[in-house]
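Try it yourself: sequence plus beta-D-glucopyranose, in.
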Amino acid sequence: MPHTPRQEQDETASAPAPRHLSRRRLLLALAGAAALSAVAAGAGRVLAAPPPPGARTGRPVPARLSERVRTLVAQLTLDEKTTLLHGATDPAGLGQAGYVPGVPRLGIPPLRLADGPAGVRVARRATALPAPVMLAAAFDPALARAYGQVIGHEGRALGQDVLLAPMVNLIRTPYAGRNFETFAEDPLLSADLVAEEVRGIQAEGLVATVKHLALNNQERDRMSVDVRAAEQTLHETELRGFEAAVAAGAGSVMAAYNKIDGVHATENSALLTEVLRELWGFEGWVMSDWGAVHSTVAALTAGCDMEMPGGAYYGAALRRAVDDGRIGHDVVDTAVARFLAVRERFGLLDEGADRPTRDAAAGARLALRVATAGATLLRNEAGTLPLTGRAARSIAVIGPTGAVPLVSGGGSAHVVPDGATSPLDALRARAGDGATVTYALGEDLYGKPLPPTVPSRDLDAVDVAAAGTWHHEGTLTATEDDDWSFFVHYSGKRPVVTLDGVELFPVKAGVAEFFAGGLGGRAADGLALRRADRRLAAGPHTLTVTAQGGATGQLFRLRAATGATRAADRAEAVAAARAARSVVLFAYEDASEGRDRTGLALPGRQEDLIAAVSAANPRTTVVLNTSSAVTMPWLDGTAAVLQMYYPGQEGAAATAAVLFGDADPGGRLTQTFPASEDRHPTAGDPVRYPGKDGIEEYGEGVHVGYRWYDANDVTPLFPFGHGLSYTRFLYADLRVAPAGDGLDVGFTVINTGTRTGVEVAQVYLGPSPDLAALGVDQPSRLLAGYRRLELSPGGRRRVTVRVAARTLSSWDPARHGWILGTGRRELRVGSSSRAFRLGTETRVGTP
Ligand code: BGC
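Structure, out:
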C-alpha cells in the first residue's frame, strides 16, 4: 500500500523489555534443558528443542553462509548495503507493492515484491484465486500447496521475486477487516495450511513472506494498538502458524504494524530475534510492513532487516548511525547477509534468471477447484439444495452480487482478475435453455438517475472534454424527510460534489483511494464509485458539481437511492421471488484492509430484503459473499444458506456447480459464527477488543475461537468445523494407538447416502489432567487433527489421523517450554467442534 512518507529521523532509544517475552525468560527456556527435565518424571514431559546453531549470539546470521555471500558483503560499500536494506520506487512500474534496487557494480539485480495473498497483485491481470479463508475451508493442506504453486508460478511469470503472503494471523475477532485474507481461528489448521502454501510458492522460485508477525488480528488502530498476550497464549495460538512457516523454509517474514507489550513489532527483539531466530532457527530476512518502521537503531538491532517501502530510517539515517558509531557495521552486515543468503538460495542473485510464461488456464482451473472445495453449506432444510426438477428450472436470482461478481476483498489483497462471469450468467448457463432464470437487484449499490425534480441539468452521463471544466449548480428538492444515498461514478479525477455546501465525496488523505478496491469501489461498468449516505429534510438543497477533464477527459454520473427507489427495488425482488419456484439471493459484505467492520449484520438493508424475499418464497437460498462471520436474524425464514466468501474469478461457476449438485459443497467453517454480537470471544470488554487507551489484552488467553465457546458454554450460530454435504456419513471403529510421543487415531468413515460427497472428519482432544494439576490452562477441547475425504455412495475408508506430540503439548509459562500433556485425555471424532460421532479416552505418555 502507499504509505505516508515519514521524516528521516535518527532514533537510538532502546526498546523497553517486553513484559511477557523477556530475553531473560527466553534464554532460560533455551538453556534450561536440564532444569526442564526435572518435570519429566512427574506430570508432563518437556519437549523444548535445544537452541539452533548460531543461537544466542543476539544477531544470528544464517548458519551456512556461502562464500559468495560472504564475498559480496565484503565488497559492498556502506551506501550499497543500505540501498539493499530498504525499498524504493520501481523504475519499471509493474505495479507491485515493493521494490529493492540492485547493485549493478556487483551484478546484484533488483528485487520485486508483490502482494498476495489471493493471487499476484500487479498492474496486470492475474488469476484472482478465492480468498485464503475459502481455501482454508477445504481443510486440505495439499490444496494449499497447489494454491501456493499457482501463485509462485504466476509471480515469477509476472516479473516478481517475492510474494508478500501468506498471512497467518489468527481469526480472533469476527470484526477484523482482514479475516478473509487469513485462514482460521484454529492454530493447528492455520499452521498446516501456511506450511504447505509456503512450500508451494517457493517450489516455483518465488520467496514467500509470512505476515504479519505478530498479533495483527484486527485493522482497527492497527498502526498503534499495543497488544498484550501472555507467553503461553502467544506460543499456543498466534505464533504457531509463523513457527510452521519457518519450519517449512519461508524465506522472509514481515513484521507487523502494531505494538506488542509496548514495543513496536519492528523493534521487538524478543520476537524478531529471540523467538524467530534463536528459538525457531529462522535464517531468512525480516522486512517491515509498509511504513511500520519507527526507528533506525532500535529496529535494525532488534532484527528487522529491511524497511519497506521506502528508506526514511534505513537510508541516510542508517548511514549516519553507522558513521556516528551508534550502530555497528556488523549489524548492517548481518542484515545484508540474511537478505543475500535467501536471494542466493532462490537464484535471485543473478541477472536474467529465467521466468516462466503465465498459465492462465491452470490458474483458472485451480481457482475453480478451491472455490468448490471451500463452498460451505451452512443450512439446507428439506433437501432444498441441490436444485433439481422444477426448482432448477424456475429461479429468481436476487441481489447486486448476483449480477456483479464479488471476486475478492479490498485493500492490498485485491487482484485484477483475468475475467469473471456473474453468478447470474453462470446459473443461466447451467440451468439451460428450457429454464427461466430472472433477475432482480433488491439492494442498490450504484444508485438510480436523480429524480427529474432534482437537476436542472442531466447528471447521469456527463462527458467532460480534456482540459475542460464542467460546473453545475442547482437545487435538489427532497419531497419528504428521507435517507438518501448518493453515488458518483467516474473516470479520471473525482468530481467535487457538494450538498448544502458540504463535500459529499471528499478525497481523504493517505490511503482512502487504495482501500476502495472491493465491491463498493467500482460500478458494474468499471467506473470508480464512491458513496455517501445522508439524511435529508424535506425541501430544497443546494447541489454543486465541478468536474475537471484533465489530460484525457472524464466521464461521470451522479446517482442516488431514496426511500422510494429502495421500495421499488424491494417490491421488484419480492415479485420476482413470488413468480419463481426457487430463489437464489446473493448477499454481500465488502471487507477491506485498513478498517474493521463496525457490526456483524449484513450491511445496508439486506437483512430486510432477505426477510421479505424468503417470506414471499420459502424456497430461498442465501448465498453469502462475505469475509467472515455475519449474524443471521433472518436465518429461520430461509431454506438454505451457502457460504461462498470471496470466491475468486471462477466463483460464479463454482457457485452454480454446488447449487445444482454437480459438486458436493466441500467446505467447513474455520471460524465460529456467533449467534449475536454480544456473545463471542471478543464481545463485551473493550480491553479485549478493540482495546482501551491504546492497549488491548488477549484476555481469552489460549481459548481463542471455538475454545472460548466451549469454555463458556455458549451456543454459536454455527460451530467451527460445521458444513453440510449432500450425502450422509457414518463413523465407526475408533482405535487409538501411541505413535512415538504422539497418537494415531484410526476410524472408519462410510458414505451411507446416495451421492458422492465430501466429509471433513475432525479429531478433538480434551485437556491433560497432569498439566491441569500443574496449573497449566488448557482448552476444554482442541482440534488435534482432521482428514478431508471424498467417498462415493456406499464407499468406506479407514482413516488414520496422526496427532503430533506438539499438539498434545502446552507451552508451560513457568518453564518457558513445551510440555507434553500426559495422562488420560478425552478424544472425540466428528463433523464439527459440536457434532461428535465417536469418542473414547486415551492415555498420553507412559503410564
Ligand atoms: C499490508 C501488507 C501488505 C503491504 C504492501 C500493508 O498495508 O498490511 O499486508 O503486504 O501493505 O502492500
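One thing you can check immediately is this: The longest strand covers residues 729-739.
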